[in-house]
């Protein structure tokens, strides 16, 4: 008897493509057969595969893989939005990261994608009132992937984190849909203040490597934050901000900066 949503394996184009790619990967590199089968081909849905991958990566002597897998399975079963967000993140990574050529790559190899899906399970736990378990997942994501996302942060779908080393996203941060960010980005506070203290990032924003966006400020939709910038004030929509401290230096240059991934500005 099929479990809820298992029928989606026959009508799920993302999962069907992943399975096709997985079979091709095994044919091309038989030594990866065990990894590919255990992580992908053994499972009947993307959600089950993600539960396995998350539990495998985050397990430790303090928390077993079995317990973490049960938690992730429960999260995906209760909240179908988690699977939908994972598919959007996968497609975003394939479309925007020039190093990504197949949908299976983020699941198997890209820590940005793996950390984001782990965060999503932790965020589900947080919303369920299971704060200590959510904090545990946050800790393990930080230890395993070098990415620290507070489980209370609110992050939309279609997120692409390229390279993904040293990402920090604070407790009251909000990130919209279809946002792209590179390594060493911080969405942080400005001191010891309590309450709503972290940035609010609009849809389709591109945040360059090493950018620091600090305080309860807003970055408008479809804007660009240049690499290495320190943003301390609101940024309007459809502009480029750069510098320390950041200033508006021009328009965004295109309608969808997070999709185009064009980080150049000024005359070329």
UniProtKB/TrEMBL annotation:
Assigned EC number: 2.3.1.30
InterPro entries named among the record's database cross-references: Hexapep, Hexapep_transf_CS, LbH_SAT, Ser_AcTrfase_N, Ser_AcTrfase_N_sf, Ser_O-AcTrfase, Serine_acetyltransferase, Trimer_LpxA-like_sf
Domain Serine acetyltransferase N-terminal: 14-118
Keywords: Acyltransferase, Amino-acid biosynthesis, Repeat, Transferase
GO CC terms of this entry: cytoplasm
Catalytic activity: L-serine + acetyl-CoA = O-acetyl-L-serine + CoA
Pathway where it operates: Amino-acid biosynthesis; L-cysteine biosynthesis; L-cysteine from L-serine: step 1/2
Family under the similarity heading: Belongs to the transferase hexapeptide repeat family.
Protein name: Serine acetyltransferase
Gene source species: Aliiruegeria lutimaris
Lineage of origin: Bacteria, Pseudomonadati, Pseudomonadota, Alphaproteobacteria, Rhodobacterales
């Amino acid at each position: 008897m099929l479990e809820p949503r298992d029928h989606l394996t026959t009508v799920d184009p993302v999962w069907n493509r992943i399975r096709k790619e997985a079979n091709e990967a095994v044919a091309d590199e038989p030594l990866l057969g065990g990894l590919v089968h255990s992580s992908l081909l053994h499972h009947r849905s993307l959600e089950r595969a993600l539960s396995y991958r998350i539990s495998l990566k985050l397990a430790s002597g303090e928390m077993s893989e079995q317990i973490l897998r049960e938690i992730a399975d429960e999260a995906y079963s209760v909240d179908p939005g988690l699977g939908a967000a994972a598919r959007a993140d996968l497609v975003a990574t394939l479309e925007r990261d020039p190093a990504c050529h197949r949908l299976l790559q983020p699941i198997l190899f890209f820590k940005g994608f793996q950390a984001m899906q782990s965060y999503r399970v932790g965020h589900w736990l947080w919303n369920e009132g299971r704060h200590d378990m959510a904090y545990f997942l946050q800790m393990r994501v930080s230890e395993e992937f070098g990415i620290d996302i507070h489980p209370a942060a609110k992050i939309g779908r279609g997120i692409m984190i390229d390279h993904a080393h040293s990402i920090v996203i604070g407790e009251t941060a909000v990130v919209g849909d279809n946002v792209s960010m590179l390594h060493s980005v911080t969405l942080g506070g400005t001191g010891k203040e309590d309450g709503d203290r972290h940035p609010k990032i609009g849809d389709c924003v591109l945040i360059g490597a090493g950018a620091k966006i600090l305080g309860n400020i807003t970055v408008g939709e479809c804007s660009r934050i240049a690499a290495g910038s320190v943003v301390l004030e609101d940024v309007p929509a459809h502009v480029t901000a750069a510098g320390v401290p950041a200033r508006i230096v021009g328009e965004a240059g295109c309608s969808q900066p997070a999709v185009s991934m064009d980080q150049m500005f000024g005359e070329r």
